[in-house]
Structure prediction request, 227 residues.
Amino acid sequence: MCRYFELPTWDEALLLILFKFIGAALSCASVAWGANLIAVHYEDVLAVGRGPAIMSIIVGVCAALLHWCECLSDMKKSSFVMNFVGSILLLLVIAEFTIGGFAFKYSNQLEDVTIEQFQSKIKEVEDGKMPELKENMDNFQIKMQCCGAFNASDWLQIPDSCFADQKQRKDIYTEGCVHAIKIVLAPTMEQLAIFVTALACLQIFIMLIFIVNYVRYHYERAEYEPV
Prediction:
């Protein structure tokens, strides 16, 4: 027969639901941050992978679904379900700490991008040997609203992607892409790391609450059961 665990008080139950809603919100935020990073196409221009961004989306979706399901479910759960949910949470926590570590690492790599490195990519684009790199560079400059490594003078022939109005080639972006990387892209990667790490810590806290209440409930039940 399946044993059940029930939170002792409604105060604790409501507190746990609040933490789960926060966890679900952080999970959705990590998905949004990851999607925002992927949309920039930075990995095709810079020597920095997009692994953390992709993993944050996958893990964020899984964590959000898990937390929302827990919030909407009955507080009375079987021991099997509790163990299963706990195991999934543990795996998510491990994945989130891994993502956070890589995101911090990649954030530092983005901070270290130099003008010379970006200029070498521009030269590869202008050589015309890698058409896909040109497309990715255009997408990158449009998304980041930047032009060249330092400014537009890095290009022999300024591409349309350097202009806010590409059809009429007006309103050229004055900010260099290296500067944009350091003030926008690198902080975004760092924020992703902070979000997934905070989510992992919150999930650990939720797991501890479950463990404490689970042990206390069974201890009290055993204490009052007739011998």
Observations:
- DSSP finds six helices and four strands in the chain.
